[in-house]
Amino acid sequence: MKTTVKALENSRQNLFIGGAFVAPASGNYIPSFDPTTGEPWYELAEADAADIDAAVRSAQTAFVNPAWRRMTQTDRGKLLQRLAQLVLEHADELAAIETRDNGKLIKEMRAQMRAMPDAYGYFAGMADKLLGDTIPVNKLDMLNFNLREAIGVVAMITPWNSPLMLLTGTLAPCLAIGNTVVIKPSEHASASTLALAELIVAAGFPPGVVNVVTGNGDSAGEALTRHSGIAKIVFTGSTATGRRIAQNAAANLIPCQMELGGKSPHVVFADVEMEHAVNGVVSGIFAAAGQSCVAGSRCFVEARIYDRFIEALVERTRRIRVGHPMQEDTDIGPLALSAQLSKVESYVASGVRQGARIAVGGKRPQSSDLTGGWYFEPTVMTDARNDMDFMSDEIFGPVVGVIPFSSEEEMTALANDTHYGLASGIWTKDIDRALRFARNVDAGTVWINTYRASSFMSANGGFKESGYGRRGGFDVMQEFSRVKNVVVDYSGTMQDPFVIRLR
Ligand code: NAD
Q: For residue range 121-175, what is the model confidence (pLDDT) as tens digits?
């Protein structure tokens, strides 16, 4: 079984196509690196266009296979329930695999994996609850109704930061409706998705319903998103890649769902408990070492508490423990990629060149225990402006810039002054003000006196360059089904087609 770190260590992992693990046509494999050492720890298959074609064909065959097509909704729900149970049984192993692959904290990954079965269960329960409509058309003896049905083969492309959790919110509803899927996980963190494939087999899904192709984005990902056999693309990743994939989808005239980057505003008013707001801002930006799409990377603080807030934020940030992600007392682990570390360093340097000041952090930690790993200290930058590069681009690292504001109008303008629109947060005891913010901010999620609290039961997604389409909640069932209108004349007659009767 692949569901342990030990089983993956120093191994070569194949593609999962048609219910079996198969070697890539080219025979090529690429290394996946351990972010705590910078060393390779297993190899994943590098899929090329031939492998992608095989995976899509397998999903197409499975889509019309009676074993899947004629399975009742209730039975599809039961399969998802079985998968939920298997994920629960293997939650700790899956968590250890993700931590090894992307360096995120074991305690965070464990919490994610233990929450995932509930999500599978939630969508399993929806399998037999997707209703069509009957339309009361203005004609006698006529039944007009909408059927909701599966759309076909869905391509799902995931990033490295929370591969399985991000996949769950779309894979579970997609399967609940009866679609088939080809998943392309990130080349930087494919191991947990390959492990999930084994659980999908064990749950009893017919072969080809779920396929996993691994490899680089510009080859495997590109071939998948251009393939004419795909009915829809679900992409979670950076805005730049999303833009490219949307062009490929347009060429094939298929819809896509885009879950992209963010530069989320996190607002603090003077009326709050300082300690709570500081904890909120710290969790908003430094959880997962800032490698979170919803990271609150632009912090706006009411001017009259600005100095006190910065002092408290810096003090709290200094107490954050940077360390090995497998240790229970670590607060921040390494960044997942060496390129990510260089990117963070270069944005901090550019911020300083553009006039910002490092209040705390701003460099790699000096501890000898962390040598070789891709670690970066949690960093607070003051004297920031929205037009600085580190404040306008998504860094995806543990860096927050802080800006004071004097009025609600100024704060709203500053918060919305971004190309992104994923998430936002506000700390205030004034409920009217909080709700005005919720109304006025351009973001798919608004957190009031909390941050990062999300649920698969509610719709998650972005505005502006953070994407479109929603993950979570019942409405996601619409995203993975299509409407077919059926018209039945039960009058038992057919009028002469050339005689038009006016009412
Ligand atoms: P990325 O865009 O580099 O890669 C994401 C996936 O796309 C990977 O599987 C990659 O192989 C694939 N890919 C790359 N080029 C491709 C191409 N030309 N065609 C098809 N596929 C291609 O993103 P990343 O660095 O893995 O992840 C970090 C980004 O993801 C951040 O921008 C973050 O904000 C975003 N993200 C968004 C959400 C959300 O829900 N909105 C959640 C998590 C991460």
A: 999 999 999 999 999 999 999 999 999 999 999 999 999 999 999 999 999 999 9
**239 C-alpha to center of ligand 1: Å?**
8
Q: Is 436 in the pocket of ligand 1 (CB under 6 A)?
A: no
- Whether residue 156 contacts residue 64, with contact meaning beta carbons closer than 8 Å, is answered with no
Q: Give the domain 265-448 fold.
A: Aldehyde Dehydrogenase; Chain A, domain 2 (3.40.309)
5-260+466-486 to CATH, choices 1.10.3720.10, 3.40.50.10490, 3.40.605.10, 3.40.630.30: 3.40.605.10
Q: Taking each helix axis as running N to C, give the angle between helix 106-124 and helix 73-89, from 0 to 180 degrees, rounded to the nearest 10.
A: 160
- Give per-residue pLDDT as tens, 67-121: 999 999 999 999 999 999 999 999 999 999 999 999 999 999 999 999 999 999 9
Q: Residue type at 373?
A: G
259 is catalytic: yes
> If 0-12 CB within 10 Å is exposed, 13-18 middle and 19+ buried, where does residue 486 land?
exposed
Read off the amino acid at residue 461. Answer: G
pTM score > 0.85 for this model? yes
